Amino acid sequence: MGRGVRVIAVINRKGGCGKSTLVRGLASAAVARGEKVTVFDTDSSQSIYGWMRVARQLGNWDDAVDVMHTYDPAEITARLDAIYAEVPHDHLILIDTFGGASEALDDVVMQSHLIVAPIRPGRGDYTETMETLIWHERLKGRVADPDDVPEYRIVVNGITPEPSATERQALEHIFETMPVIEEPVLERKAYKQVDGEGLLGVIRNKTRMSIVQRHLTNALEEMSVVLDLLDDAIIERMEAV
Ligand SMILES: Nc1ncnc2c1ncn2[C@@H]1O[C@H](COP(=O)(O)OP(=O)(O)OP(=O)(O)O)[C@@H](O)[C@H]1O
Ligand SMILES: [Mg+2]
């Protein structure tokens, strides 16, 4: 069944929690399924735009993925309108933001179907992620209709194979107090490789070494499950409205 056009904004005030990593992973998962992907990179460091340029040079890109670097909500709106005007198709739209972002993002958020925040447990991410959740709650008070504010989901990021007692405790606390999706994202070398080289599926298909290929496949499958869960959250919300 078609998924249509979905807009996901990746937002967390906490720097370095894995926002751009998640955007790269979700873009990879969607394009590997044959979807079109558009990424709006609103970060001055151009983390996604720069990634695309390197990936293109290395031949690790797919033209079904489009990246636009912009700070202008009106520019985002115009591009979204153009996408909505196309014949119906599956299209994942991701908005990458910088750490510390807040009210400046109101306009961008109101054009999304879902807000997603990665969080790394046991690293002091909790407080700032909670602040981001509070910002989201307050946004409902700033708009005409609070029901128009998209829902928020938390993605746990950077889980190690043998978490320490502190990490486990932090994880439990996150699951008890935040709207977390079930699938955690593991700490993986594959995500660093994606960062430096390009789209996950494209790199995987070019890799000869079977062990590296397996690691990349596992990461791609992980991101595919995360994408499914985020899509489920969007569909649930649409059906409820
Ligand atoms: N699951 C992961 N496995 C391995 N490395 C990761 C993972 N998540 C993030 N990283 C690494 O951690 C660093 C910070 O991640 P990233 O750039 O995605 O964070 P960010 O939230 O986008 O930061 P900023 O707020 O500065 O934009 C990067 O070097 C990235 O490769
Ligand atoms: Mg980033």
Automatic annotation (TrEMBL):
Gene3D superfamilies: P-loop containing nucleotide triphosphate hydrolases. Pfam families: VirC1. InterPro entries: DNA_Partitioning_ATPase, P-loop_NTPase, VirC1. PANTHER family: COBQ_COBB_MIND_PARA NUCLEOTIDE BINDING DOMAIN-CONTAINING PROTEIN, P-LOOP CONTAINING NUCLEOSIDE TRIPHOSPHATE HYDROLASE. This is VirC1 protein. The lineage of its organism: Bacteria, Pseudomonadati, Pseudomonadota, Alphaproteobacteria, Rhodobacterales.
